[in-house]
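Translate structure to sequence.
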């Protein structure tokens, strides 16, 4: 009998994992997504062009305890070849990795098509409320139904993004005796007054200074700042 994996969260990490599990381990895989559709945040990446990765990856960019083997993954994983293996061709534009199509919608379609081809079951509008470890496997209590599985992967977003919902998913760890670190601030948008709404979507490369701190990179204008 096949082992069963339930993945909580239908973002890019959850959907990509589901494809790999079916492709290489042939497990039964179910993805539970609280939103009405999977890969919702993916559509917003790269201002719709789908920024998939960055050449400048290093353990110094990650908060928390980084084990030696995690560092090996960061440096040894070839994302260009891995994505090509499922039919997604990419290109670097500077340090940023984009699909050849430069379309997040096209990437969403490809990932969902691959998941369907491999037999991944994706259930939307299904919010996981609690997880309980049993003698064998796990019991998952969700908003519409209860599930059982041999393994569980938690790949939820945080309340930081509007598309993730407002609930704190760390409550799922409460009954699992899993240690986790407090959340830390990361990159976020700046709200300005005035906001030049006509510039929404415009990107500008340069050197920018705020309160004495200078960064080189890309500035994206939005309708709020």
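Result:
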């Amino acid at each position: 009998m096949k082992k069963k994996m339930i993945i909580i969260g239908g973002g890019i990490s959850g959907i990509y994992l589901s494809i790999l599990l079916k492709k290489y381990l042939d497990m039964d895989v179910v993805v539970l997504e609280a939103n009405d559709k999977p890969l919702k945040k993916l559509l917003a990446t790269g201002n719709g062009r789908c920024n998939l990765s960055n050449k400048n990856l290093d353990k110094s960019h990650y908060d928390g305890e980084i084990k030696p083997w995690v560092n090996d993954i960061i440096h040894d994983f070839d994302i260009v070849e891995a994505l090509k293996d499922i039919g997604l061709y990419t290109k670097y534009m500077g340090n940023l990795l984009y699909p050849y199509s430069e379309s997040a919608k096209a990437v969403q379609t490809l990932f969902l098509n691959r998941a369907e081809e491999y037999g991944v079951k994706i259930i939307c509008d299904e919010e996981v409320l609690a997880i309980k470890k049993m003698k064998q496997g796990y019991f998952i209590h969700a908003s519409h139904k209860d599930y059982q599985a041999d393994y569980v992967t938690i790949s939820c977003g945080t309340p930081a993004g509007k598309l993730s919902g407002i609930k704190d998913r760390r409550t799922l760890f409460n009954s699992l005796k899993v240690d986790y670190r407090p959340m830390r601030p990361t990159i976020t948008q700046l709200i300005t007054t005035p906001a030049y709404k006509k510039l929404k979507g415009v990107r500008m490369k340069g050197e920018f200074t705020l309160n004495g701190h200078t960064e080189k990179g890309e500035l994206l204008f939005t309708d709020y700042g």
